[in-house]
Amino acid sequence: MLLLFVIGSRASVLDGEDDADANVKDVTIDNFSVSARGKELLKNASVKISHGKRYGLVGPNGMGKSTLLKLLAWRKIPVPKNIDVLLVEQEVVGDDKTALEAVVSANEELIKLRQEVASLQDASNMSTGENGEDDDGDDVGEKLSELYEKLQLMGSDAAEAQASKILAGLGFTKDMQCRPTKSFSGGWRMRISLARALFVQPTLLLLDEPTNHLDLRAVLWLEEYLCRWKKTLVVVSHDRDFLNTVCSEIIHLHDLKLHLYRGNFDDFEVGYEQRRKEKNKKFEIYEKQVKAAKKSGNRAQQEKVKDRAKFSAAKEASKNKGKSKVDEDEPVPEAPQKWRDYTVEFHFPEPTELTPPLLQLIEVSFSYPNREDFKLSSVDVGIDMGTRVAIVGPNGAGKSTLLNLLAGDLVPTEGEVRRSQKLRIGRYSQHFVDLLTMDENPVQYLLRLHPDQEGLSKQEAVRAKLGKFGLPSHNHLTPIAKLSGGQKARVVFTSISMSKPHILLLDEPTNHLDMQSIDALADALDEFTGGVVLVSHDSRLISRVCGDEEKSEIWVVENGTVEFFPGSFEEYKEELVKEIRAEVDD
User: Are 468 and 346 in contact (CB under 8 A)?
Assistant: First the structure.
């Protein structure tokens, strides 16, 4: 649990104590600061979240995005009392309720009214005399009539149908909707939590990486559904296409501040680049003036340059806030500083040439013991140097099983696997944490797996590789158990790179990566001359890796087999979107 120290919020008007503010639906964050475990996350940050708009909250991992969502949900950031806030961050607790019941029960007021109606009906039946007359019948009838009217206004008759539609969009079949929640894995329970939030429709909905547990079809369905969202949405996501489709505003957490950009993520990137250039230009001018003043040796002139720069910054700040003068309570603007960019670089070494075929599954079938509901049959696929494959299909259809068969982690029940003797496979699994040794630090772990490092210092060689994959130097000697999910992922990617693979098998590689790292991964895969097989819900990454129709293949895993899609990934995606729009509009 993070220890949070919150200071400096100047949003007292929104505490909800004044009746005049009963209809306020905007959330104003004003000069807000927060630290977690001694690390400053926000300093005098300000932004306004306007009702009815859909915001994407972006920025590198570990900078405080999830913390900000939690502070809003916990109302540590003042939120008007009339606004109901819901943060989806934990999977639903598994019990005997069906998935459908779990979603409908999220509307507590609806359930309470239904229970009240049932109690009144029972009481009415019990109090009816032998002659069939009920002394209190008129009162009970009047009360029931009133409750029925409330239920009708709440759409009680359509509640189960609406909940079922949401669950279906998120990948639940009719049979799955009737299964108890305790029978589902954590990923599916997260989907139920998301379905509950969409069903309740809170005034302020907060989503933290909602696509991480979804397959591609479910992601596209969620995009379409949220595009029709009429209330306020704040979503943390590293999926560019998702942000582009869903969001009308972007809040960028940068340099301990919250910067608002109008438009979707593409618009944000244009605005961000312009802002970066402008700030760096001002810094360059300021730096030249300071150097000139220092050269003259005139201390008074040096202070004059600094004061003039601060005055210009203060004037600009007041202009941006629409004020005629600077507020005395606000922090004094600082002199221009260089824009601090976060960069990361992934790299997979050039593989040695091998004679094709590198890897083949020939008429392979596979089934798990005691799993009569699952089987892959007649799988006939191959991978060579330069092959680019996207494996698509619904969750549970067998995408990860197919990767395990290719990797050799599973043995087919029928058919043949042919693998080049010198073939090295780099494998990234959704459950990569199971591969890590938690009591070792990243350097120890990598040196044990890859002891043949060149150079004067093996430790320095490993640390240089970890740094390129975006793991901060102070974490290189931290026990792996204490690293975040994203930091552990970087250790795994570093290890894959050091194994010098011929083929990369990647199962949902973006789940723990921030946007800059996803871009770096896409760039590295572009340059990699070996084979790449990718399972991902991130359509932009698939487009980057498998965008060339002549060199790429789309394998569709569905209905117990693997089929080749006769077209590009974009065409496959367009087919899905057409189906989904028809469902959502229905």
Answer: yes
